[in-house]
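Supplementary Text 2. Reproducibility record for the structural model of the 379-residue chain.

All settings were left at their defaults, and a single model was retained for analysis rather than an ensemble. We include the record here because the model underlies the residue-level annotations in Supplementary Table 4.
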Amino acid sequence: MIKENFYDGYINPQWRKKLSRLIANGKKQEALKALDKFIENLLPLFQSSPELLEERRIAWLLRIELLRKWDRKIEALAWVCLECELNPDNKKAQIFKEQIKNDLNLSENKESDSKIVSSYIPSTNWDGVAGMQELKAILEMDVINPIMNPVLYARYKVSIPNGILFYGPPGCGKTYIARKFSKKIRYNFIEVKPSDTASIYVHGTQEMIRDVFKKAVEKAPCILFFDEFDAFAPKRGESSTSHHYRSEVNEFLTQLNECHEREILVIGATNNAKLIDEAVLRPGRLDIKVFIPPPDFEARMEVFKMYLNERPQEKLDFKRLAEYTELSSYAEIKNIVELTARKAANSRKKITTDDLIEQILKNPPTLTEESVETMRNLK
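Retained model, structure tokens:
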């Protein structure tokens, strides 16, 4: 059962846990029913809280994503049409409806629509990224669709994203997801770390900031990925921020403006979004904020398989391992596997499920449900 007191100062994460387990265990109908209950009963339709409205939007996106993934496109279209009826101002839902109808050859004016809707059809395939259905649904609707269907979005006067902020706990795959994202939309990828451009901030060389963006233009279409983004654009009001630092942040903000017109998509990754200058998060700069949570049940199963691949092992219970590692990051799971493998090597024995669980219990996750939800909230 999903707990009824799902909102008590923060969104209760139990519905996400339940959903990821149902999906991983192949219980499709149960997963859809759980989402139905969440959408229809636990989130009042006319609730004014922005947090609750966003949770309802995410749950709706998840339902559409799962129906498409499970090749139930007619049902997906029905849910999109219902959303369009209930919320006529939801332009993204209207656009999505046209895309699905075009995919199903249900468009009334196929010749006209083919000029508006690009050949790109929203895809549930993310090579190398297991689970994380919520994250995929958000990126598909809010970022990939506008980029891949610019004419259709222009018709509805919906702007193309200029940049994205990936924020959330460390070790949860922000860089990895950004790289996979670039492959999905077929953009070149440039990664910039604070250590790569240290002279920018030590010596105040604003020219080097311009060079980074110039290189991205030369490689356009391109994703310009800034790791530890809070180091590039810290709050300028802080007393510790020097005059030169403020000037460099100003230059950075200038370069961020209207990047999409140069076919650049900026992605900033941070473990602490509250350290970033507010001006960076305004429309026209980093338009979209995407929370990257710890891996869900399905993702944890797959990451154990990946890290244990080709190591001497007995038959392992990956579902049991996923159960024991709730809230563990990818980095923490990798460490657990390394510790277990080292001990097994010293004993010259195969790795067992119990060996792994022994290390899991010795190395509990650093995150808690409360800390994750606090990080999720940008306010």
